[in-house]
Amino acid sequence: MSTPLITVDALTLGWGDLILLKDVSFAVERGEIFAILGPSGCGKSTLLRILSGLDEPMAGTVEIEGVGAPTLEVGRPTYGVMFQSGALFGSMTVGENVALALTEWTDLPRSAVSAIVRSKLRLVGLQGSEYLQPSQLSGGMKKRAAIARAMALEPDLIFLDEPSAGLDPVSAAELDELILTLNAHLGITFVLVTHELASIFKIAKRCILLDRPTQSILARGDPRELRDNSEVPDVRDFFNRLTHSPLEET
């Protein structure tokens, strides 16, 4: 049996006296697309920040490839992150945004950096956009550019925070296809926070469903199986978007 890429053990997170999740454990296998789901305020984005080393838990551990999750202050990151808005720097061109990690963490010559930037933009369908400003991109294109930037250092793991948020249905579907393609052809493991059920059923191989009242994981597994066969009414309601469920997103 292979060792999980990410192992989360007895994790508790929150701020001060506010506990969002307590004693949570789960694993993410290498090469899968893993979704973190739940209602607003249950700790999804906070959990993602802890997994990616941007915040620290109150208790418990996170291991990536058998070692503690690194922080950005310690050294070169071993994973990529795409933030909800894309978080492209408006003062830089698209190419400069993608090149940022390369110039920060490598000693590659400018020609090599430029070649890598063009390659990553081509992978996400944005070839020829390196001299554009982020303001010239559509919402979907910004998300694609952010994924290109997240891939700059050739990571095996990318974290996505609400990748489809704010996109029209066509752009959201195209982004789903991109994630599936990168996963299938490059073997990239994706861990994403989202509330878009259409995307979840299309791309996620496994998920965890967080529960605000119990501050724990209410369900875990294939989202399609949970939708159709879960014995827990609240879980079925969440995945079928039944409005009487206390887990229903607003």
Q: What characteristic shape results from the CA principal axes?
A: globular
The CATH architecture classification of the largest domain is 3-Layer(aba) Sandwich
The first-level CATH class name of the largest domain: Alpha Beta
Distance between the termini: 40 Å
Low-confidence stretches: none
Structural class label: alpha/beta
Helix percent band:
25-40%
CATH homologous superfamily assignment of the largest domain: P-loop containing nucleotide triphosphate hydrolases
Output the helix-strand order: EEEHEEEHHHEHEHEEHH
* Average of the residue pLDDT scores: 89
Can you walk me through this structure?
The chain is built from 8 helices and 10 strands. It has 250 residues and is of the alpha/beta class. The protein has 2 domains: 1-79 and 155-250, P-loop containing nucleotide triphosphate hydrolases (Rossmann fold); 87-149, no CATH class. A 6-stranded mixed sheet has the order 6-7-8-3-9-10, sandwiched between helices. A 4-stranded antiparallel sheet has the order 2-1-4-5, covered by helices on one side. The relative contact order is 0.17.
